[in-house]
């Protein structure tokens, strides 16, 4: 039952306006409210799974229909508050770093503190702020942490549109932002959905993907995606894809970098998203020489920890194979050949072969 002071549409509208204002105060770039209709995406999603485009991410095939029915994730859900937060530091190079082949390229969202922790904290603070005003409103906060169609929710909330690269795009900021959601039992007034996808005839993200990971517009084969290969994938990286990975050792931003809407990107003001341990400018050799203790220490509180030390070494070995040939590069690879795991050794041998050509 709603408190008596929320008995009229005007009262609920004021609360919705307050929530959006509070969200800005908590560091979000935007907040919008939606009563999502997600069942319409069920057939498309299941076809994607049936085609094995989720690769080794078996968790995407789990949880039944939960992602299509928000009330199954949080009983009593009536609305979803969709929020976004900018993450790109102004001081960080993007395209220039990709062209410097002896330096590592790490997806720009992963240079600082783990966004899960930062955004979840802010979502909880916002939800508790609402609670202070209206009492227990029955809520649950999510940051890429449950079976949620977050981009579809954001699109239905009018935050932007899903681009051909499968990312959410907005004319206000391109796609350099992260999403979070608060499921709430409050019957808040909703925002108008996005009805048009403004990609037009542009295919830059599709044609310039290094590994040709897009089957068609809006359909990504994760098994070819560098982000998947360097973060989620376990085992050897398929050999035909290794030379295409360049110096990308954790994630990939290429389909954002070539998107025309990127020119509208807004930079983050969050100190926690600033690069740690010079990861925006570190050399491949330097990072390859980290032992496991160093890796664990320097990735504490970082999303990079997710890939694990062995895969970190695997990824850098591939990048060193794609780096300019030098005595230092070859000597570094040879020195690690006999002390590395079988998985890493396979990629070191491949890398050394590249420098004999």
From TrEMBL:
GO molecular function: 4 iron, 4 sulfur cluster binding; cobalamin binding; epoxyqueuosine reductase activity; metal ion binding
Binding-site residues for [4Fe-4S] cluster 2, renumbered to this chain: 209, 225, 252, 255
Record's GO cellular component terms: cytoplasm
UniProt pathway: tRNA modification; tRNA-queuosine biosynthesis
Principal place of residence: cytoplasm
Name by which UniProt lists this protein: Epoxyqueuosine reductase
Binding annotation for [4Fe-4S] cluster 1: 199, 202, 205, 259
InterPro entries: 4Fe4S_Fe-S-bd, 4Fe4S_Fe_S_CS, QueG, QueG_DUF1730
Biological function: Catalyzes the conversion of epoxyqueuosine (oQ) to queuosine (Q), which is a hypermodified base found in the wobble positions of tRNA(Asp), tRNA(Asn), tRNA(His) and tRNA(Tyr).
Record Pfam families: Fer4_16, QueG_DUF1730
Bound cofactor: record note: Binds 2 [4Fe-4S] clusters per monomer.
Residues the record lists as binding tRNA: 234
Subunit: Monomer.
């Amino acid at each position: 039952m709603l408190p008596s002071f929320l008995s009229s549409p005007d009262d609920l509208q004021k609360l919705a306006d307050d929530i959006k204002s509070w969200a800005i105060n908590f560091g979000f770039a935007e907040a919008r409210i939606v009563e999502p209709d997600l069942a319409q995406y069920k057939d498309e999603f299941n076809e994607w799974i049936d085609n094995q485009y989720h690769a080794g991410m078996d968790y995407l095939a789990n949880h039944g229909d939960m992602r299509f029915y928000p009330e199954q994730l949080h009983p009593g859900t009536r609305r979803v508050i969709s929020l976004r937060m900018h993450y790109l530091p102004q001081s960080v190079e993007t395209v220039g770093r990709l062209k410097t082949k002896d330096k590592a390229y790490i997806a720009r969202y992963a240079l600082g503190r783990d966004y899960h922790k930062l955004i979840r904290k802010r979502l909880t603070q916002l939800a508790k702020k609402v609670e202070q005003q209206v009492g227990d409103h029955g809520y649950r906060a999510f940051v890429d942490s449950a079976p949620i169609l977050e981009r579809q929710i954001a699109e239905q909330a009018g935050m932007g549109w899903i681009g051909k690269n499968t990312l959410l795009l907005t004319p206000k900021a391109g796609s350099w932002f992260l999403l979070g959601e608060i499921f709430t039992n409050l019957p808040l007034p909703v925002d108008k959905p996005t009805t048009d996808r403004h990609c037009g005839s542009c295919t830059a993200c599709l044609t310039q993907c290094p590994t040709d990971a897009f089957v068609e517009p809006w359909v990504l084969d994760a098994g070819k995606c560098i982000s998947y290969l360097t973060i989620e994938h376990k085992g050897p990286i398929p050999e035909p894809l290794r030379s295409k990975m360049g110096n990308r050792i954790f994630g990939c931003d290429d389909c954002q970098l070539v998107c025309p809407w990127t020119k509208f990107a807004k930079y983050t003001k969050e100190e926690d998203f600033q690069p740690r341990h010079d990861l925006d400018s570190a050399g491949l050799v330097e990072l390859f020489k980290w032992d496991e203790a160093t890796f664990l220490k320097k990735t504490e509180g970082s999303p990079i920890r997710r890939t694990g030390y062995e895969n970190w070494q695997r990824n850098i070995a591939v990048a060193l194979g794609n780096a300019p040939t030098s005595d230092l590069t070859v000597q570094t690879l040879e020195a690690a050949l006999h002390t590395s795991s079988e998985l890493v050794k396979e990629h070191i041998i491949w890398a050394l072969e590249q420098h004999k050509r």
